[in-house]
Amino acid sequence: MTTQPVSFQTERLSLRPFSFGDVDDIVTYAGNPEVSRFIPSIPRPYGRRQAEEYLSRLTLMEWDSRPTFAILQSDRVIGAIDLNVRAAHGTAELGFVFGHEHWGQGLATEAGRAMLGYGFGRLGLTLLTARSDIRNKASHAVLRKLGMEQEGVLRGRVVQHGERLDVAHFSLFKGEWMAALKARQS
Length: 186
Ligand SMILES: CC(C)(COP(=O)(O)OP(=O)(O)OC[C@H]1O[C@@H](n2cnc3c(N)ncnc32)[C@H](O)[C@@H]1OP(=O)(O)O)[C@@H](O)C(=O)NCCC(=O)NCCS
Description:
Blueprint: E1 8-9, E2 14-17, H1 23-30, H2 33-36, H3 48-60, E3 68-73, E4 76-86, E5 91-98, H4 107-122, E6 127-133, H5 137-145, E7 149-160, E8 163-173, H6 174-185
Parallel strand pairs: 5-6
Antiparallel strand pairs: 1-2, 2-3, 3-4, 4-5, 6-8, 7-8
The protein binds coenzyme A.
């Protein structure tokens, strides 16, 4: 099934595909070393050129294989959330990032819930996964709030900003997500 780029709203956020007009907002959040601390794919230093390259890479990818949403609040892009889809396996890896000044308000959990709905619902995926640096406690808290279970830790799997790191892996099956939704509604 081919899916087209979409936009949607959550209680406090708008999610839509990125556009080249978002460069300055991307630099604002991704250029903060606190934000890139646990994300190997965000180069340092990070400026307009890096943000433009990121947007160019997105335009080269099929939406189906890498749905990537800009997250907006009050018309400013404050973060991003994406799924790295492996359609043949019915799986996708979830990734998310928010500007530092927006942390601690439950926004990643809110956007993450919307992405579970998109991945399991609209895309019909069977399993969503996520991985993050074992020191990234905020990310792990978000993944647990989304209902994901930690499956294990891969030792020394990633070199990030010059350091070799252990990476925690999380996952959630569609059936588990649906059961949790049902339990919340009853
Ligand atoms: C991870 C990130 C997206 C979280 O965003 P957020 O909007 O602050 O997340 P939420 O507010 O929904 O939830 C954060 C949770 O982490 C918890 N938390 C934050 N720092 C923590 C710490 N040092 N130790 C333990 N828990 C922590 C918060 O208490 C909260 O849990 P609670 O609601 O149960 O109290 C944000 O910190 C970020 O953008 N980090 C940089 C990018 C990144 O690491 N992305 C993840 C890569 S997989």
